[in-house]
Amino acid sequence: MAVPPFGPQSLEQLRREMDRLFNSFLGELPEAPWPLQGRERLPVNMWETSEAFYVEAEVPGVTQDQIDISVTGNELTIKVRRPQPAEEGVTYHRRERATGEATRVIRLPGEVDHERVQADLQLGVLTITLPKAEGTRPRKIPVNVRTG
Question: Regarding beta strands 67-72 and 52-58, do their DSSP bridges make them parallel or antiparallel, or are they unpaired?
Fold first, then answer.
Protein backbone atom coordinates (compact mmCIF):
# COMPACT_ATOMS: atom_id res chain seq x y z
CA MET A 1 0.00 0.00 0.00
CA ALA A 2 1.42 3.37 -1.04
CA VAL A 3 1.70 6.07 1.59
CA PRO A 4 0.52 9.48 0.33
CA PRO A 5 3.04 12.34 0.53
CA PHE A 6 2.86 14.43 3.67
CA GLY A 7 3.49 18.15 3.60
CA PRO A 8 1.85 21.59 3.77
CA GLN A 9 -0.81 20.71 1.17
CA SER A 10 -1.88 17.56 3.00
CA LEU A 11 -2.02 19.51 6.29
CA GLU A 12 -4.19 22.16 4.62
CA GLN A 13 -6.49 19.44 3.27
CA LEU A 14 -6.71 17.86 6.75
CA ARG A 15 -7.55 21.26 8.28
CA ARG A 16 -10.31 21.86 5.68
CA GLU A 17 -11.79 18.41 6.32
CA MET A 18 -11.71 18.97 10.11
CA ASP A 19 -13.35 22.41 9.66
CA ARG A 20 -16.02 20.81 7.49
CA LEU A 21 -16.61 18.07 10.11
CA PHE A 22 -16.93 20.54 13.01
CA ASN A 23 -19.11 22.88 10.96
CA SER A 24 -21.48 20.03 10.11
CA PHE A 25 -22.03 19.38 13.84
CA LEU A 26 -21.81 22.89 15.29
CA GLY A 27 -22.53 25.23 12.39
CA GLU A 28 -19.87 27.64 11.23
CA LEU A 29 -17.88 28.94 14.19
CA PRO A 30 -16.65 32.53 14.38
CA GLU A 31 -13.08 32.84 13.22
CA ALA A 32 -10.30 35.29 14.00
CA PRO A 33 -8.86 37.62 11.37
CA TRP A 34 -6.09 36.60 9.00
CA PRO A 35 -3.48 35.40 10.02
CA LEU A 36 -4.30 33.20 13.01
CA GLN A 37 -1.44 31.32 14.67
CA GLY A 38 0.33 30.80 11.36
CA ARG A 39 -2.88 29.80 9.54
CA GLU A 40 -3.88 32.47 7.14
CA ARG A 41 -7.60 33.26 7.10
CA LEU A 42 -9.84 35.74 5.35
CA PRO A 43 -12.31 37.76 7.42
CA VAL A 44 -15.75 37.74 5.77
CA ASN A 45 -19.28 39.03 6.24
CA MET A 46 -22.17 36.98 4.87
CA TRP A 47 -25.83 37.97 4.57
CA GLU A 48 -28.84 37.18 2.45
CA THR A 49 -31.87 38.76 0.84
CA SER A 50 -34.85 36.96 -0.64
CA GLU A 51 -32.98 36.79 -3.96
CA ALA A 52 -29.34 36.03 -3.09
CA PHE A 53 -26.59 35.33 -0.58
CA TYR A 54 -23.73 37.82 -0.34
CA VAL A 55 -20.18 37.30 0.90
CA GLU A 56 -17.83 40.21 1.43
CA ALA A 57 -14.10 39.71 2.13
CA GLU A 58 -11.36 42.22 2.89
CA VAL A 59 -8.46 41.67 0.48
CA PRO A 60 -6.39 44.90 0.50
CA GLY A 61 -3.53 45.04 -1.97
CA VAL A 62 -4.74 42.02 -3.95
CA THR A 63 -5.50 42.11 -7.68
CA GLN A 64 -8.18 40.09 -9.45
CA ASP A 65 -5.64 37.63 -10.89
CA GLN A 66 -4.59 36.73 -7.32
CA ILE A 67 -8.11 35.56 -6.38
CA ASP A 68 -9.74 32.20 -7.17
CA ILE A 69 -13.41 31.63 -6.36
CA SER A 70 -15.38 28.42 -6.80
CA VAL A 71 -18.75 27.06 -5.74
CA THR A 72 -19.27 23.32 -5.32
CA GLY A 73 -22.63 22.19 -4.01
CA ASN A 74 -23.40 24.51 -1.11
CA GLU A 75 -19.77 25.47 -0.40
CA LEU A 76 -18.02 28.64 -1.51
CA THR A 77 -14.22 28.53 -1.69
CA ILE A 78 -12.21 31.75 -1.79
CA LYS A 79 -8.46 31.46 -2.35
CA VAL A 80 -6.26 34.57 -2.25
CA ARG A 81 -2.55 34.79 -3.07
CA ARG A 82 -0.66 37.80 -1.72
CA PRO A 83 2.94 37.57 -2.93
CA GLN A 84 5.91 38.67 -0.87
CA PRO A 85 7.34 41.87 -2.35
CA ALA A 86 10.70 41.33 -4.05
CA GLU A 87 12.62 44.23 -2.54
CA GLU A 88 16.41 44.29 -2.45
CA GLY A 89 18.48 46.45 -0.16
CA VAL A 90 15.60 46.95 2.27
CA THR A 91 15.75 46.37 6.03
CA TYR A 92 12.38 45.81 7.65
CA HIS A 93 11.87 46.92 11.23
CA ARG A 94 8.33 45.56 11.36
CA ARG A 95 6.53 43.22 8.98
CA GLU A 96 2.91 42.63 9.97
CA ARG A 97 1.07 42.45 6.64
CA ALA A 98 0.29 38.87 5.73
CA THR A 99 1.72 37.33 2.57
CA GLY A 100 1.25 33.91 1.04
CA GLU A 101 -1.98 32.07 0.34
CA ALA A 102 -5.21 32.19 2.34
CA THR A 103 -8.21 29.94 1.73
CA ARG A 104 -11.74 30.09 3.15
CA VAL A 105 -14.37 27.45 2.62
CA ILE A 106 -17.81 28.75 3.61
CA ARG A 107 -20.86 26.54 3.85
CA LEU A 108 -23.79 28.37 2.28
CA PRO A 109 -27.17 28.20 4.06
CA GLY A 110 -28.99 27.23 0.85
CA GLU A 111 -28.66 26.23 -2.79
CA VAL A 112 -27.36 28.77 -5.30
CA ASP A 113 -27.61 29.21 -9.07
CA HIS A 114 -23.98 28.41 -9.95
CA GLU A 115 -24.25 29.94 -13.43
CA ARG A 116 -25.17 33.40 -12.10
CA VAL A 117 -22.55 33.84 -9.34
CA GLN A 118 -20.69 37.15 -9.65
CA ALA A 119 -17.64 38.63 -7.93
CA ASP A 120 -16.62 42.29 -7.78
CA LEU A 121 -13.40 43.77 -6.38
CA GLN A 122 -13.51 47.42 -5.34
CA LEU A 123 -11.11 49.30 -3.08
CA GLY A 124 -9.78 46.11 -1.48
CA VAL A 125 -13.20 44.61 -0.77
CA LEU A 126 -14.31 41.49 -2.63
CA THR A 127 -18.10 41.13 -2.89
CA ILE A 128 -19.51 37.82 -4.13
CA THR A 129 -23.18 37.67 -5.13
CA LEU A 130 -24.66 34.16 -5.10
CA PRO A 131 -28.21 34.19 -6.50
CA LYS A 132 -30.44 31.64 -4.81
CA ALA A 133 -31.59 28.64 -6.83
CA GLU A 134 -35.10 29.09 -8.20
CA GLY A 135 -36.61 26.41 -5.95
CA THR A 136 -35.24 27.96 -2.75
CA ARG A 137 -36.55 31.50 -3.24
CA PRO A 138 -39.64 32.49 -1.27
CA ARG A 139 -42.77 32.46 -3.41
CA LYS A 140 -45.87 34.47 -2.57
CA ILE A 141 -48.96 32.29 -2.65
CA PRO A 142 -52.17 34.13 -3.53
CA VAL A 143 -55.19 33.43 -1.39
CA ASN A 144 -58.35 32.80 -3.38
CA VAL A 145 -61.67 33.87 -1.94
CA ARG A 146 -64.59 31.55 -2.61
CA THR A 147 -68.17 32.45 -2.03
CA GLY A 148 -71.01 30.14 -1.35
Answer: unpaired
**Amino acid letter at 81?**
R
- Are 102 and 79 in contact by the 8 Å Cβ rule? The answer is yes
Is the pTM higher than 0.70? The answer reads: no
Give the separation between CA 103 and CA 39, rounded to whole angstroms: 9
String of b and e for 98-111 (b: at least 16 CB within 10 Å)?
Answer: beeebbbbbebeeb
Query: Is the confidence at residue 131, as pLDDT, over 60?
Result: yes
Cross-strand bridge partners of residue 87 = none
Q: How would you write the chain as a 3-class SS string?
A: CCCCCCCHHHHHHHHHHHHHHHHHHHCCCCCCCCCECCECCCCEEEEECCCEEEEEEECCCCCHHHEEEEEECCEEEEEEEECCCCCCCCCCCCCCCCCEEEEEEEECCCCECHHHCEEEEECCEEEEEEEECHHHCCCCCCCCCCCC
